[in-house]
Amino acid sequence: MIIILKQNVPDEQVRALRETMAGLRLTVQDIQGESTRMLGLAGDTSMLSEDSVLRHECVERVMKVSEPYKLAGRRFHPQDSAYEIAGRRIGGGAFTVMAGPCSVETEEQVLSIARDVQHAGADFLRGGAFKPRSSPYSFQGLGLDGLELLKIAREKTGLPIVTEIMSQEYAEIFKNDVDIIQIGARNMQNFPLLTEVGRLGKPVLLKRGPSCTIDEMLMAADYILMGADSPVILCERGIRTFETATRNTLDLSAIPVLKKKSHLPVIVDPSHGTGYWDLVYPMALAAVAAGADGLMIEVHNSPDKALCDGQQSITPFLFDRLMHKVEKLRAALA
Known about the structure:
Elements: E1 2-5, H1 11-23, E2 27-32, E3 37-42, H2 50-54, E4 59-63, E5 83-85, E6 88-90, E7 96-100, H3 107-120, E8 124-126, H4 144-157, E9 161-164, H5 171-177, E10 180-183, H6 191-198, E11 204-207, H7 214-225, E12 232-236, H8 254-261, E13 266-268, H9 270-274, H10 277-289, E14 294-298, H11 316-333
Parallel strand pairs: 7-8, 7-14, 8-9, 9-10, 10-11, 11-12, 12-13, 13-14
Antiparallel strand pairs: 1-3, 1-4, 2-3, 5-6
């Protein structure tokens, strides 16, 4: 529901209306149009009649919102969101690259890759400490020891770190130690985890689930946004279809669709989206052309020896070439 306020209403009337709505356990968000001030209500508004809202002296009219998501949508937030995170800008015309190994293995490995991707122009170091694997026999990551290695790499290179949280029990640790908390595809609809992470007030990277629609992704984002005003970045990483030539089907149409429906920045992960290193390069460029706000790329200095997803990791040399090509493509599109 959106409440359109009358012109030049006293602040105390608006404050009283906000308090009334908050008392109904609704999230209230200010929306400033060109000449109109509005309040957006998120939550269960079924108990709230249009007539009861119009009784407030400051209310001009009421609009129902048909989309199942509220806070992630453009009706509540018409302008694109842009964030300053650890001195890096995401969204708002900036292009952000997160790169690093699928899984942290050793201090030497993660530090070497961090220095290589930093030299090539990456803005963030991505690396898995906790790894959700389909097979219980596959490498599950180093856990908290892996997180400590990421922190060492951050200290020595200055690159902020992005890593995936798997359990609510590590929420406070991630709040203190991680620059961007990643919600992986398998946990996109883990609603207790989304709610807990949203309370932390930390930037969150939300990956699309392999069998989830765009609307379901935006509703998942609302779970996070209802918390402590955490910045949310959306990530398209491929969906499951009948096609077997690639690991997933990278849905590049999701970029303009998400940008039409939502104000949140959108980045693309062509590594998981294709599953093959030789497809990462062309699909990354395609994502740039489609209007993505950034990329997440898996980089490994010895992909053949990687403990996780080596087949979809590119070498530092190829990553450097990709970054040069991205820069030229963005210049051509400007």
